[in-house]
Each structure stands twice: as structure tokens, then as C-alpha cells.
């Protein structure tokens, strides 16, 4: 905003509120990219989809659809959910490229992987 004239800088907060109504952005500003969210279901003692590929900055949300509790635990311990009851959700935002294997700490045969490419 430093490039905007002083009067316009003072009006910028009001213009930001009006921009969606007016159908446009404020000159000299950059619109934020919408956050990406990918969902993984936990159903029948499995993560569905078992392997997903996402871009950096993507939030993955796991939802437990089973009647038994489950967790989402990274092999490298970079993320770990509490026990999720039926309908429980856990989200984690992946900020750097790599492969992130995970499992359910209550049922270790349940495994999955998030591949972050970008």
C-alpha cells in the first residue's frame, strides 16, 4: 500500500470491505489465493484415499466415519491427532514438499501417505 496516495491509503480499509460488493480488487493490492482443503475419510478401518498428492499450503482434514476411535499420526511425529470419535475431525496444513506417511496409533495396520509437490 506504500505506493498508493495518502488519501487512498486512508480509505483502503473501507475499499477492502467494498471490493467484493463492487466486484473488483483495490488497485495496487494483491488478492490472497484461496486456501486449499482436501478431505480424507476414515471408514471401515482404512484411510480413504490412502495416498493423496497436494500442493504446499494445502490443509488436509481427516474425518472419522467409523464407530471406533482412530488417530492420525505421522511416522516422523510432525503431526498427531487426539483419538477421534465418530464424526471427529483433525486438520493439518502441509507447508513444505515431501512425503508424509502416517498411521492410526490405535490400529497400526491403518496407514496412509500425503505427498506434497509444488
Explain how this protein is built.
There is one protein chain. The protein is globular. The protein has a 4-stranded mixed beta sheet with strand order 2-1-4-6, with no helix packed on it. Strands 3-8-7-5 form a 4-stranded mixed beta sheet, with no helix packed on it. It has 1 helix and 8 strands. About 15% of the residues lie in helices and about 35% in strands. It starts with 5 loop residues before the first helix and ends with a strand. It folds into 2 domains: about 1-30, no CATH class; about 35-115, Cupredoxins -  blue copper proteins (Immunoglobulin-like, Sandwich), CATH 2.60.40. The longest helix has 17 residues, at about 5-20.
Residue share in helix: 10-25%
N-C termini distance: 29 Å
Radius of gyration: 20 Å
CATH class of the largest domain: Mainly Beta
Give, in order, the helices and strands: HEEEEEEEE
For the biggest β-sheet, the strand order reads 2-1-4-6
Task: Summarize it.
The chain is 14% helix and 35% strand. Strand 1 and strand 2 form a beta hairpin.
List keywords for this structure.
alpha/beta, 4-stranded mixed sheet, 1 helix, about 120 residues, 8 strands, Immunoglobulin-like, 2 domains
Topology at a glance:
Blueprint: H1 6-22, E1 37-43, E2 46-48, E3 51-54, E4 58-64, E5 73-74, E6 89-94, E7 98-103, E8 111-116
Parallel strand pairs: 1-4, 3-8
Antiparallel strand pairs: 1-2, 4-6, 5-7, 7-8
Amino acid at each position: 500500500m506504500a505506493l498508493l496516495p495518502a488519501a487512498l491509503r486512508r480509505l483502503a480499509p473501507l475499499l477492502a470491505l467494498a471490493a467484493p460488493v463492487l466486484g473488483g480488487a483495490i488497485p495496487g493490492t494483491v488478492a490472497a489465493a484461496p486456501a486449499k482443503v482436501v478431505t480424507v475419510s476414515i471408514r471401515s478401518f482404512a484411510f480413504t484415499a490412502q495416498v493423496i498428492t497436494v500442493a504446499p499450503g494445502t490443509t488436509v482434514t481427516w474425518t472419522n466415519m467409523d464407530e471406533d476411535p482412530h488417530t492420525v499420526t505421522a511416522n516422523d511425529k510432525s503431526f498427531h491427532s487426539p483419538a477421534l470419535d465418530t464424526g471427529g475431525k483433525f486438520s493439518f496444513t502441509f507447508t513444505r514438499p515431501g512425503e508424509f506417511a502416517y498411521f492410526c496409533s490405535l490400529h497400526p495396520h491403518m496407514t496412509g501417505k500425503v505427498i506434497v509437490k509444488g
